[in-house]
Amino acid sequence: MRSIRIWFNKTETAKYISHLDLTRCMVRAFRRTDIPLWYTEGFNPHPHLVFGLSLPLGVEGLYEPLDIRLNDENYPLQRVIDELNRVTVPGIKFIEITEPVNKPLEIFSADYTAQLVGENLENITEKIKEIVENETITYEKKVKKGGFKTINVTDNLKDFEITENNGDILLKFNLPAGNDFTVSPVNFCNALSERLNRDDLIWRITRHKLLMKNGRDFI
């Protein structure tokens, strides 16, 4: 048995596939290939698939990890990529395979970009800068036990940049993203829209990479 980490991107229409449906999609894809996927033992065997971290619905991911195990240690890794890309759905592309180094539980944060799309964006850049620098940005998150928890974005926002080029506004930032604590980039952008009093704005959010607590890339 051999453990490998497959890296893929999830873009375009695939960004609207939920994490649960993505798992089902991956299982169906593997079943349409000859990849010797390892299955758990017991009364109800199922394929060993472990995602690094789920993506929020509507957010694109450019370098997402998926861990699997192969029954055949000699099965060519390039063939895994080729077979999966042969049967994948639009918007999901398998990029490369590496040996797992870090564990998914070590994921601590993620780097994002958010492109702002809309009309009448004059002075929006300066307004966003002022909000991020001078206001406390929060949102309400529903919790399992019922009720809501206030998430403070401002205290957890890192490496924030905003640039404007030919009318396009692009935000770059880092937010906590792990099993213990996650700050949603979608809710952050929606909170900005509320403070700008602009419900017509569209945010194109992309997750670029996952990082560990020490700031190194998750690999």
Summarize the entry for a quick read.
With 219 residues, the protein is of the alpha+beta class. It has helices at 19-31, 77-87, 124-134, 185-196, and strands at 2-10, 49-51, 60-70, 92-98, 107-117, 138-142, 148-152, 158-165, 168-176, 202-212.
Topology of helices and strands:
Layout (H helix, E strand, L loop, with lengths): L1 E9 L8 H13 L17 E3 L8 E11 L6 H11 L4 E7 L8 E11 L6 H11 L3 E5 L5 E5 L5 E8 L2 E9 L8 H12 L5 E11 L7
Note down, in words, how this protein is organized.
With 219 residues, this protein is α+β, with helices and mostly antiparallel strands. Helices cover 21% and strands 36% of the residues. The chain is built from four helices and ten strands; from the N terminus they run E-H-E-E-H-E-E-H-E-E-E-E-H-E. The strands form two sheets. Strands 1, 2, 3, 4, 5, 8, 9 and 10 form an eight-stranded mixed beta sheet that branches. A two-stranded antiparallel ribbon has the order 6-7. The longest helix has 13 residues. It is elongated, with a radius of gyration of 19 Å. The model has no long low-confidence stretch (mean pLDDT 94).
Relevant terms:
219 residues; alpha+beta; 8-stranded mixed sheet; 10 strands; 36% strand; elongated
